[in-house]
Design brief:
Blueprint (H helix, E strand, L loop, with lengths): L11 H34 L6 H26 L1
Helix pairs in contact: 1-2
Amino acid sequence: MSRPQPVERAPRRKRLEIVNAMLLLVVLINVLQLWLFTATVHAVLGGDAEPVWPAGLASLACLGLNLGLLWYLRRLDR
């Protein structure tokens, strides 16, 4: 089996731009999650428990996106 070719590291400035873009995405995802939590709590307190499971699944998707970005960041650092 052949070994995978090593990937050249991006220049420091380019990596910094990528990290800044990832940080912006993390902030946006977290704001979305906070809004989702607030809307869900508001609905539940209003007597409507229907959006709890879809909101929970959407929140798990946000978690998955954040974990994927973390994985990419660790891979970028190698």
